[in-house]
Amino acid sequence: MPGPRMGPRPNDFDEFVIRQSPTFIKWEQLEIGERLRYACREFVKGQEDDEERLMRRIMIARRNNIRDHTVLKQARAKRNPSKKRHRITAHPLSDEQVASEMDGPAVEATRSYRVWMELKDGEEFVYNQKYVKGREGHDWLLRKNIWRRMRYRRENKRMLENMKQEEDPTVHLDPAAIEAAVAAAESFGKSNVSAALVHNPLGVTTAQEALHAAAQLAAAGARGLAEDEEDADGKISTEEEDTSTFFEI
Is residue 69 part of a domain? Predict the structure, then answer.
C-alpha cells in the first residue's frame, strides 16, 4: 500500500550535498530491484519515489547532525574558553585498564556484537576495520573498539548534562534530548561534507534551544528508532555510536 504523497522539497534541501553522501553513492551503485536499508526503512532501486524519499531522509539526518553537533561545540567551548585547540596528551589505555573499566554487559547487548556472535568461524565482520570470527584476538579487539565508542558517548553525555545544569540548575534534563544531541554529533563528526553547506532551518542559536529541539525530534521519531547500529550512513545505535533522529516521510 503506497504511503502519503510527498509535498514540495523543504527550503534547506541541498541535492549537491546529498549526492556526495556515502549512502547515496551506495544507492547509485545498486541494480534495479535491489534494496537499501537506511534509518530503519527500506528503499528499492527503481521503485516509485524511493530515491526521492531516500534523499529527503539523508537531508533530514544531516540537518539534525549539524544542529546537534553545535550543542557539543558549545559545551566544549565552555569547558575550554581559551579557544585554543585542546590536545589530549594522555597515553592510550592498556588492555588491562580497558578490561577493568569496560561495561561488558552493555557491549555484549549492542547489535554489532550480537551480529558478531551469530557468525560462523571464518566469516568476516566490518566495524571500522575487518574482523574474522574465530581468529585469535579479534573478539577482544572488537569488544574493545565498541567500548571505546561507548565510553566517548558517555563522556559527551555527561558534559552536556553538566553544561545544562550550570546554565540553569532548576531545568529538568530530558534524556532523549541529550541522547539525540550526542549521537547525532558523532555522526556529523564522521562526515566529509562541510557544515557550511547545510542550513539551520530551526534557527537554533543556544544550547538550551538545541536540546529542546532535539527532545522534540526524539519524541517525533521514537517509532523509527527500533534498531541500534553504528555508522554515519544512518544506521542507529543505542549507546555505542551515532545517529540522528528521523521524521516519517
Answer: yes
Residue 101 domain flag? yes
Tell me the C-alpha to C-alpha distance, in Å, between residue 50 and each of 16, 29, 54: 18, 15, 6
pLDDT value at residue 121: 94
In a domain, 189, yes or no: yes
Q: Which domain holds residue 171?
A: 15-80+93-224
Cα 230 from Cα 233, distance rounded (Å): 8
* Residue 113 belongs to some domain of the structure: yes
pLDDT (tens digit, 9 = 90+) per residue, 20-75?
999 999 999 999 999 998 887 899 999 889 999 999 999 988 888 887 777 777 77
DSSP summary character for residue 82:
T
CA-CA-CA-CA torsion sign (93, 109, 158, 184): positive
Count up the domains in the chain and report the number. Answer: 1
Cβ atoms of residues 67 and 206 within 8 Å: no
Looking at residue 244, what is its pLDDT? 33
In angstroms, rounded to a whole number, what is the distance separating the alpha carbons of residues 62 and 23? 12
Maximum average pLDDT range among 77-81, 114-118, 199-203:
114-118
